[in-house]
Amino acid sequence: DIQMTQSPSTLSASVGDRVTITCRASQTISTWLAWYQRKPGKAPQLLIYKASSLESGVPSRFSGSGSGTEFALTISSLQPDDSATYYCQQYNSPSITFGQGTRLEIK
Amino acid sequence: QLQLQESGPGLVKPSETLSLTCTVSGGSVSNTSHYWGWIRQPPGRGLEWIGNIDYSGGTYYNASLKSRISMSVDTSKSHFSLKVSSVTAADTALYYCARLGYCSGGTCYVAPIDSWGQGTLVTVSS
User: In Å, how far is B77's CA from the nearest CA of chain A?
Assistant: First the structure.
């Protein structure tokens, strides 16, 4: 299986900060990568697909980049509503796998 | 818009079989273009893919769970189901059903997950 490694595992930042979460795949996955936001008591919400495509309805402060094995999710100006856990997921293989998650806290 | 809802017992005894159902609305479980599946999240841990099923009942399971899981689709009731046998405390988790991809020309592909159920917590305990 393709292993996905996210960093950091937790992140604390202030409103207005630029925040970046990274995700590394154990083998190349081209751009078959998605990012999700998950808040307590809710299902994960798709933010980014194909590494850099913004899902409809997602604020433009979210962006994704990368290809091959190195990827990043960036929030350009952190908002209070962005407090959540973020997951990357590869869908290059039918055996989809997720990163372990990054918990983002607002200072 | 697709809506998915999990249902099933919240408490299962060790060694027994966990059974969950996912009811689909706003679309048809027999729609040949949908690829359904299950994902779980144990407490304090990350998301784990369990397996996929297509409209015809074709399945693809996580190798680490394959010996204990089975999935089925019931088009008459517009739902698909998951069974996990011989459960232990390690199977305690929040279980999600989701549309994991699409099917075209007889082949199914995983894709970004844009439709999830709300999740149902299953605890394995005596």
Answer: 24
